[in-house]
Amino acid sequence: MKGEERSESLAVYFVLGVLLGIIFLKSEVASWFRIQEMFRFQAIHMYGVIGSAVAVGALSI
Q1: Nearest-5° angle of CA 50, CA 30, CA 15?
Q2: Are 34 and 28 a contacting pair, CB within 8 Å?
Q3: Read out DSSP for 15-42?
Q4: Could you say which of 11, 25, 37, 41 is the most buried, measured as most Cβ atoms within 10 Å of its Cβ?
Q5: What's the rounded Cα separation, in Å, for the pair 42 and 53?
Q6: Is the pTM for the entire model greater than 0.90?
Q7: pLDDT category, 1, cuts 50, 70, 90?
Q8: Distance between CA 41 and CA 13 in Å, rounded?
Q9: What is the pLDDT of residues 6-60, one digit of tens each?
Q10: Domain positions in the chain
């Protein structure tokens, strides 16, 4: 029984990871071009994503 529960919980984490990866790709967070823009201070897109993540994290505490 314990092995089945573990594989089910791992499957849930796998699905959540795949969904998070899709979200990152669609929002272009995983794009090298967006990361380059961030480090050259040419666009605010990545700073907005990071800022919203920090805000959500702060609210959860």
Answers
A1: 95
A2: yes
A3: HHHHHHHHHHHHTTTT-HHHHHHHHTT-
A4: 37
A5: 20
A6: no
A7: low
A8: 34
A9: 778 888 999 999 999 999 899 888 888 888 998 999 988 889 989 999 999 999 8
A10: 1-30, 31-61
